[in-house]
Amino acid sequence: MARFLSVFATTGMVVVLGYQLYDIARGPYGMSIGAAAFQLGLFGLAQFLPLFLLTPLAGLAADRFDRRRVGALAMGLDMGVALTLAFTTYFGLLSLPLLFVLAACHGTARVFMGPALSAIAPNIVPAPLMPRAIAISSIAWQMGSVAGPAIAGLLFAVLPAAPYITSGVLLACSALAILSVRRLPPPAENRKMAPLQQIIGGFSFVSRDRFLLGCISLDLFAVLLGGATALLPVYARDILMVNGQPVGANGLGIMRAAPGAGAALVAFLLSRRPIEREVGTKMLLAVVLFGAATIGFGLSRNFALSLLMLALLDGADMISVFIRNTLVQLHTPDAMRGRVSSISGLAISASNELGEMQSGLAAALLGATGAVVFGGVGAIVVTGVWAIWFPELRRARTFAAAYRQP
Fold first, then answer.
1. Does this model's pTM top 0.85?
2. Residue 277 three-state SS
3. CATH of domain 2-181+194-395
4. 290 CB-near residues (< 8 Å, 6+ apart)
5. How far apart (Å, rounded) are the C-alpha atoms in residues 92 and 195?
6. Buried-most residue among 46, 111, 121, 284 (CB within 10 A)?
């Protein structure tokens, strides 16, 4: 429930925030399409910088303190961001500098929330059930990703401040849900180590384990290039048409929900019949399909076809995420899970937020279509290179766990 509510709240909040930023840049600030698209790239960078700077502290917090409380405090910070946006939107006080500051605060909340929530699952689920548990958690994530943007777009059309008020309430409920989990004291060995020693130990563990390094870095570089979703406001306002009119904010909400719908369907199938054999090869092929669907979306000018490509794009990514998350969780000792999850989260966030920066810059140089197609081709190329550089990924046959709960 905490996963579903927090994702519902934050994805809805961010999609409206991105649309408002682009609309303000194009309207009151009078920017061109290319310049406003570049602002979307800077928006992604503003969210990423706190993640880059605070990831070591976030992993340390998840391994040194009760993970429930770390997650709940992060949700409280994000709730403050949502309510501030509600107030400033309602009274017409929004500006580009304020939006960038609030984006950075949102990034700060996310960097602490992610490792804490990810590291909890292996503490309360037996290792043999982890693949199914991760699939169910992914369903909650994707259901939130589907409902959040779609409902936020509809609420925004009725009252611009409404999506942010809704997000604030849902984040409060999410914090209460995570605090209802039984108390999770940190591993005893972590309380005996110096904080700096723990931080260094986490990075050293990942850098020495080529399997983990390959899993984490594949997502970083492949998704960084394939960041089509960053340019959805451009497609909604200036490219995709229905009956001669731009699809607008409502269309943007539907487009942001389409990837989640595809991923949720795949996650449901995986919860019923988890992948169990040739997991490494299937993970690599899923990333190739992700790149191909990205190219298809970039070239499409039909709204229905674009929605199909977005659903296929995230459906393929869901397979990759399911396999990678299961492998990472089961190949990491509990005392390290917070720090490894924070490093994995940094890679995911870098691929998303820096991907938005890359997409915005590429759009300014190549146009929105050129940027999306370039990213899809890049994701396919990166997958081929990683299959050669990290043969450990291709050789992963099953989810055999190296570290199990006592």
1. no
2. coil
3. 1.20.1250.20
4. 222, 223, 226, 313, 316, 317, 320, 379
5. 44
6. 111
What is the tens place of the pLDDT at every residue in 46-104?
A: 887 887 788 778 877 877 888 899 999 999 999 999 999 999 999 989 899 999 999 99
Beta strands in 54-124 (DSSP E): none
Which of these, 345, 352, 398, 341, lies nearest to 375 by C-alpha position?
352
Per the CB < 8 A criterion, the answer to whether 115 and 338 are in contact is: yes
Residues 6+ apart with CB under 8 A from 19: 156, 233, 236, 249, 252
| Cα gap 121→181, rounded to integer Å | 11
- Terminal CA-CA length for the chain: 26
Using a 10 angstrom Cβ sphere, with 0-12 exposed, 13-18 middle and 19 or more buried, the burial of residue 28 is exposed
- Domain boundaries in the chain? 2-181+194-395
In this predicted structure, what is the pLDDT of residue 176? 95
Token pair of 14 as six digits: 């961010």
Written as six digits, the tokens of 167 are: 């997000």
Q: How many residues are listed for the chain in this entry?
A: 406
The span from the CA of 135 to the CA of 264, in Å, is 9
CA 160 to chain centre: 24
